[in-house]
Structure formats: structure tokens, C-alpha cells
Amino acid sequence: MEDHLPQSVRVERRAVSERESRDANGPDWDRYADEYQATHGAFLGDAGFVWGPEGHREDDLRILGDVTGRDVLEVGSGAGQCSRWVRVHGGRGIGLDLSHRQLQHSLRLDEETGVAVPSVRGTATDLPFAPASFDVVFCSFGALQFVSEIAQALAEVARVLRPGGRFAFSITHPTRWMFPDDPGEAGLTASQSYWDRTPYVEVDDASGRVAYVEHHRTLGDWVRLLHAGGFVLSDLVEPEWPEQHDRVWGGWSRARGLLTPGTAIFVAHLRGDG
Ligand SMILES: C[S@@+](CC[C@H](N)C(=O)[O-])C[C@H]1O[C@@H](n2cnc3c(N)ncnc32)[C@H](O)[C@@H]1O
Asked: Which residue's CA is the closest to the ligand 1 atom numbered 8?
């Protein structure tokens, strides 16, 4: 879940369409972007690649393999930190994000670092790229858990990937959906059904409009989605909480991280001749 909850919203679990999800989450990320970058920017690193709140870095995990000379798309790229890392490591990293304000931060970091990430505003369910344009597509807590029409998003990834291309993404570990989104003791007592896929929704009290949405799929759902989408799953990385790490990020904390996985990183490739 997101690590901010404005006073004026109420939390519900209810069905929401792709359109509602996008219309809520774009403006929500626009509003939140300045605070997000001020709070987490130093931890992420301007040209750093962090896979989740546990702080595991691509420098160590090497989920994407050698990106040198590769065409690499990041879906839900925010301020482009990960794609900047790709560029520094010799790949042709490109970013896509729903939020105009997040992309403005990306431009700011392009100028500050001298490493520019070509980026486009768009949505994961309608990627503005030609078929077979990329060797690698990835998301680090980007887009996927904000999308309702997830099969369409995976179809788009499959379309823009070259045969054999790699698709890797991190999301909130699906088992976290059983627990309240609380970094403390309260976040350790299961209180919701793991199998309840009803989206998490914040509704603006004043207008009654949907203001923020996250979608839940179980581990089995992801395996079936990837298989149906033409992918072969090669790994599911569940990063452990590092011994010395004591940073709270929303519902992620040392107290919970030592007991339950907070992040899941799926690693797959597109079936084909690659
Ligand atoms: C948690 S941030 C992660 C960004 C970046 N990877 C990072 O680590 O800071 C999630 C990003 O996904 C973007 N996003 C949400 N829904 C999206 C969608 N449907 N298509 C593309 N991007 C989306 C948000 O605007 C936001 O920048």
C-alpha cells in the first residue's frame, strides 16, 4: 500500500474498473510525487536501482542480467532512478509513467546527474511502442499493482518484448494482503482473507470519488497470468530483511520484515526463440 493516507479519505474494499484506477492513481501520484521523492529519493539514489523497501539493489541481485547494449523499458518509472542505473550500465533505458509530476522529477534528475532517461507519459495497459522493441521490460513497484486490467498489461509487455526477452517485476508480496498495512505490532495479525481479490480503495470523503487504488493477485494468480500471457517463470525472489536495515517505508519495517516477506520479485521471459 501507499505510505500516505490523507485525512480526508476513507478506506474501502470494492470493485473498480481500469478507468477508475487510472483516473484515481494518476492524479494521486501527481499530488504525492514531491513528498515521495523528498522522503525516499536519497534511499533510492538518483541513478540507483532498488527493488523494494528492503533496499536490495540490482547491483547485487542482478535480476536483469547484463544490460549492456540492451533496449530496456521500465513501466511505472517514477523519477527514473532505475532506468538511469540501466543507462549508467550501458543499456538503452526508457521510462514510462502515468504521473506527470513523477516525470518532472525524472527530468530534474536527468539535469542534476547528466544521465538522461528518455521518458513518456502513458499507462501500462497501452504501451506506446512498436512490437518487439525491447530486450527487457521491468517494474520496480511500478504500475502492475495499480492496474485493474492486468492481463491486458501483460499482453502489452509481451507485445513490446522481443522473443526470449526478459520481464521482471517487484510488487508488494501477495501474502501482505492478509495483514493491516501497519509497520508495528498491529501489522502482524492476519485479519483479511489472502484470497479476497477485492481492490483496496481510498475514497475522497468530500467528493465521493475514488482517490487511490491497489489491486491484489495471489501468488497462484501471478503464475497463471504469466503462463497465459506467454511467459516462462524462472524465479520468484523473496528478498529477506537485511540484518542492519532499520528503515520504515509505509507498512514495511524491521519488525515485520524479519517475520514475513514484504516484496516479491517475479523473473520471467517471453516464450520464443531467445
Ligand atoms: C511506487 S512508484 C515506483 C516508481 C519507481 N520504480 C520507484 O522505485 O520510485 C509507482 C509508480 O507507478 C506509476 N503508475 C501507477 N499506475 C500506473 C500505470 N497504470 N501505468 C504506468 N505507471 C503507473 C506511478 O505514477 C508511480 O510513479
From this structure: 140
Q: Tell me the pLDDT tens digit for each residue of 176-211.
A: 999 999 999 999 999 999 999 999 999 999 999 999
User: Ligand 1 atom closest to Cα of 36?
Assistant: 9
Query: Which residue out of 1, 16, 18, 102 has the highest number of ligand 1 atoms within 8 Å of its CB and is therefore the one to mutate?
Result: 102
Q: What is the β-pairing status of strands 71-75 and 134-140?
A: parallel
* 3 alpha carbon – ligand 1 mean position (Å): 14
Query: At 216, is the pLDDT very low, low, confident or very high (cuts 50, 70, 90)?
Result: very high
Task: Name every protein residue with a CB atom under 6 angstroms from any ligand 1 atom.
Answer: 22, 25, 29, 44, 75-76, 78, 82, 96-99, 102, 123-124, 140-143, 146-147
Distance of CA 43 to the CA centre of its chain: 16
Cα(first)–Cα(last) distance of the chain, in Å? Answer: 35
Task: Count how many domains the chain has.
Answer: 1
**Inside any domain, residue 52:** yes
- Does the residue 79 lie in any domain? yes
Separation between Cα atoms, residue 83 and residue 93, nearest integer Å:
5
